[in-house]
TrEMBL record:
<feature type="compositionally biased region" description="Polar residues">
    <location>
        <begin position="9"/>
        <end position="25"/>
    </location>
</feature>
<feature type="binding site">
    <location>
        <begin position="131"/>
        <end position="133"/>
    </location>
    <ligand>
        <name>S-adenosyl-L-methionine</name>
    </ligand>
</feature>
<keyword id="KW-0539">Nucleus</keyword>
<feature type="binding site">
    <location>
        <begin position="159"/>
        <end position="160"/>
    </location>
    <ligand>
        <name>S-adenosyl-L-methionine</name>
    </ligand>
</feature>
<dbReference type="Pfam" id="PF05891">
    <property type="entry name" value="Methyltransf_PK"/>
</dbReference>
<dbReference type="GO" id="GO:0071885">
    <property type="term" value="F:N-terminal protein N-methyltransferase activity"/>
</dbReference>
<feature type="binding site">
    <location>
        <position position="114"/>
    </location>
    <ligand>
        <name>S-adenosyl-L-methionine</name>
    </ligand>
</feature>
<protein>
    <recommendedName>
        <fullName>N-terminal Xaa-Pro-Lys N-methyltransferase 1</fullName>
        <ecNumber>2.1.1.244</ecNumber>
    </recommendedName>
</protein>
<keyword id="KW-0949">S-adenosyl-L-methionine</keyword>
<keyword id="KW-0808">Transferase</keyword>
<dbReference type="GO" id="GO:0032259">
    <property type="term" value="P:methylation"/>
</dbReference>
<dbReference type="GO" id="GO:0042054">
    <property type="term" value="F:histone methyltransferase activity"/>
</dbReference>
<dbReference type="GO" id="GO:0005654">
    <property type="term" value="C:nucleoplasm"/>
</dbReference>
<feature type="binding site">
    <location>
        <position position="175"/>
    </location>
    <ligand>
        <name>S-adenosyl-L-methionine</name>
    </ligand>
</feature>
<comment type="function">
    <text>Distributive alpha-N-methyltransferase that methylates the N-terminus of target proteins containing the N-terminal motif [Ala/Gly/Pro/Ser]-Pro-Lys when the initiator Met is cleaved. Specifically catalyzes mono-, di- or tri-methylation of the exposed alpha-amino group of the Ala, Gly or Ser residue in the [Ala/Gly/Ser]-Pro-Lys motif and mono- or di-methylation of Pro in the Pro-Pro-Lys motif. Some of the substrates may be primed by NTMT2-mediated monomethylation. Catalyzes the trimethylation of the N-terminal Gly in CENPA (after removal of Met-1).</text>
</comment>
<dbReference type="GO" id="GO:0007059">
    <property type="term" value="P:chromosome segregation"/>
</dbReference>
<comment type="similarity">
    <text>Belongs to the methyltransferase superfamily. NTM1 family.</text>
</comment>
Length: 263
């Protein structure tokens, strides 16, 4: 309880304290306690749902369309992240008669396509991307290069409003974006993802986990949930947990990051 990690207030989506990202003052960088200690649901920390979403959209509109922008200044850890994700995913693509297919993947909260480029396009025949920030998807068209021709759809949409086409995807990858959805919207979205899976398909969530409870980040308008809260939402969505893994070799000062494979 109350470890250094928990007390350091870090951004959910972009890995590090968003005050640092936006060049905030030393005062703003001080470790702070969660706004409402003990909160375990987004309804306890999100005061105005409409504002929660519009503020996040505004925040991302001002972020440069670069790998560093996607990772809040932690662009240098992208390779560690991708290599671990590849290992995590490949066990499902390789194993036995029930292995996951490699026809089509969906990258959710895809940004400029950092994951699409290095993880999904090398493993899948086709990829669809969905993100709420139009400029990121526009940038993706050049950032992805030649291989980007295999991106079938660029959906500009909030995940809270997005329904994957039923029975369409072998893998639905959701990384560093769940904190931008309320609990209810996240559970609903995961339910729709389940319907979007092809036989033997999986949903992967990879994201920051709080030490305890739900922590609001007012700067990028996101929340960071603890492991139990995330597992609870997954259960509520009717998904089974197939595998769970903590990311290793990330900098000490950022949130713990976990991957979950679900079906
Ligand atoms: C931290 S970046 C992660 C990008 C990418 N997943 C990666 O790991 O490189 C968060 C992304 O989520 C997007 N985003 C924020 N709120 C969203 C929402 N409600 N629905 C869909 N995308 C959203 C942002 O535009 C941004 O591209």
């Amino acid at each position: 309880m109350g470890s250094k990690k928990q007390n350091q207030r870090k951004s959910n989506t972009a890995l590090v304290c968003s005050h640092q990202r936006s060049g905030g003052s030393q005062e703003a960088r001080r470790p702070r306690a969660p706004a409402r200690p003990g909160a375990s649901m987004t309804s306890a920390v999100v005061e105005d749902e409409a504002q929660f979403y519009t503020k996040a959209e505004k925040y991302w509109k001002d972020v440069p369309p670069t790998v560093d922008g996607m990772l809040g200044g932690y662009g240098h850890i992208s390779s560690i992240d991708i290599n671990s994700s590849k290992k995590f995913l490949q066990r499902f693509l390789r194993e036995g008669p029930n292995r996951t297919g490699t026809t089509c993947a969906l990258d959710c909260g895809a940004g400029i396509g950092r994951i699409t480029k290095r993880l999904l396009l090398p493993l899948f025949e086709m990829v669809d991307m969905v993100d709420v920030t139009e400029d990121f998807l526009t940038k993706a068209k050049t950032y992805l290069g030649e291989e980007g021709k295999r991106v079938r759809n660029y959906f500009c949409c909030g995940l809270q409003d997005f329904s994957p086409e039923p029975n369409s995807y072998d893998v639905i990858w959701i990384q560093w974006v769940i904190g931008h959805l309320t609990d209810e919207h996240l559970a609903d979205f995961l339910r729709r993802c389940k319907l979007g899976l092809r036989p033997n398909g999986i949903v992967v969530i990879k994201d920051n986990m709080a030490q305890e409870g739900v922590i609001m980040d007012d700067v990028d308008s996101s929340v960071c949930r603890d492991l139990e809260v995330v597992r609870g939402i997954v259960r509520l969505a009717g998904l089974d947990l197939l595998a769970e893994e903590r990311q290793e070799n990330f900098p000490d000062e950022i949130y713990h990051v976990y991957s979950f494979a679900l079906r």
